[in-house]
UniProtKB/TrEMBL annotation:
This is TetR/AcrR family transcriptional regulator. PROSITE patterns: HTH_TETR_2. PANTHER family: HTH-TYPE TRANSCRIPTIONAL REGULATOR RUTR, TETR-FAMILY TRANSCRIPTIONAL REGULATOR. It holds the Pfam family TetR_C_11. Keywords: DNA-binding, Transcription, Transcription regulation. It comes from Streptomyces dubilierae. It comes from the Bacteria. Residues 40-59 bind DNA. The lineage of its organism: Bacteria, Bacillati, Actinomycetota, Actinomycetes, Kitasatosporales. Residues 17-77 form the HTH tetR-type domain.
Length: 210
């Protein structure tokens, strides 16, 4: 390939960056409107105003394009907020997730990506990487809380962050319940209480001796 590397991995700068931006935004539009099953590289090229051969050469497949879209979304996500307290930081995280999932465009986009991941291994791997990046971005707020004495030593910071967003995704995808800011605040408070109580302290591995 002209740009080298795996499909969808492009060197930033100049025309390459402009083409990538246009194609990724077109992919977002198509996912939001048509869902994963409606994605077609030729249609995305048309939407982006670029040649079909450029899209096929650089991304190769729909899953390659979706993987690059998720990588871009992780790069563009808002940085964590530091309020000086565990509850404050977790509330900021929960409200950020809430705003994303209730946004008409972003909410529909995430639903489409999650649906795609259930049936495509490469998309699932890309989605897992996206969430891993976001969890690692916010995990330091839990480690800082441990240093302040707000949570016990050994608290699994990643699990605390996952616990904040899990109820929001449940309401989005499963229950159909009202996904409002009050729910986000309750999710943050529940995770903070559980963390302070030691629920997320990593348990040492016990090796059995025969």
């Amino acid at each position: 390939m002209a740009d080298g590397g795996e499909p969808g991995t492009l060197r930033p700068g100049g025309r390459t960056a402009r083409v990538r931006e246009a194609v990724l935004r077109a992919a977002e539009d198509a996912l939001t409107e048509e869902g994963f099953t409606g994605l077609d590289l030729a249609d995305i090229a048309r939407r982006a105003g670029v040649g079909k051969t450029t899209v096929y050469r650089r991304w190769g497949t729909v899953t390659g394009l979706v993987a690059d879209l998720l990588a871009d979304m992780a790069e563009q996500s808002s940085p964590r907020t530091e309020t000086g307290s565990l509850l404050g930081d977790l509330t900021a995280n929960a409200r950020l997730v809430h705003r994303t999932l209730t946004d008409p465009r972003q909410g529909a986009l995430f639903k489409a990506l999650i649906a795609a991941a259930t049936g495509d291994a490469r998309t699932a791997a890309a989605l897992h990487r996206f969430y891993d990046i976001r969890v690692r971005e916010w995990a330091p707020c839990v480690r800082q809380a441990v240093e302040r004495g707000e949570a016990p030593e050994g608290t699994d910071a990643h699990e605390v962050i996952r616990a904040v967003s899990a109820p929001l995704y449940y309401h989005l995808l499963i229950s159909g319940g009202r996904l409002d800011e009050a729910l986000a605040d309750r999710a943050a408070e529940a995770a903070a209480i559980a963390a302070r109580a030691g629920v997320y302290v990593r348990q040492p591995t016990v090796n059995s001796v025969s």
